[in-house]
Write a structure and sequence with these properties.
- The chain is an all-alpha fold.
- The chain folds into 2 domains: 2-43, no CATH class; 50-108.
- It is built from 3 helices and no strands.
- It has helices at residues 2-35, 50-77, 82-112.
- Helix 2 (50-77) packs antiparallel against helix 3 (82-112).
- The chain is flat and about 70 Å long.
- It starts with a helix and ends with a helix.
- 6% of the residues are buried.
Length: 113
């Protein structure tokens, strides 16, 4: 009982310690740059577009679904074993849809520029 509590305490304190050190180090670096007269635009970050992430996750999900369907068809209508058909088709179609997503993002970047 006490061992479980100590393990959880250790895990959460480690996570807190990592974030605390990261934030304090980042603050010290920024203060040093400001003291040296660096431009404040170094601290601004580009906003990430979550549409790319949702598109990627959606295309991966569609690829996995298509892979499951193709694996089922392969295992039912051919002599390929079910243990081989499902994983191979899931990875194949998941990868194909992610490659298609990369081409879509590349086309969107060129259109925006």
């Amino acid at each position: 009982m006490i061992g479980d509590f100590l393990i959880l305490l250790t895990i959460f304190s480690s996570i807190f310690g990592i974030f605390f050190v990261w934030i304090s180090t980042r603050n010290k670096e920024r203060m040093a740059l400001i003291e040296k007269g660096a431009d404040a635009s170094l601290f601004t970050t580009k906003k990430r577009s979550f549409t790319n992430i949702t598109l990627k996750i959606g295309m991966l999900a569609v690829g996995i679904g298509t892979g499951i369907l193709a694996g089922s068809l392969l295992s039912n209508y051919t002599t390929i074993n079910e243990d081989v058909a499902f994983p191979s088709m899931i990875f194949l179609f998941g990868g194909l849809f992610l490659v298609g997503n990369a081409f879509l993002e590349k086309n969107n970047k060129t259109e925006e520029e």
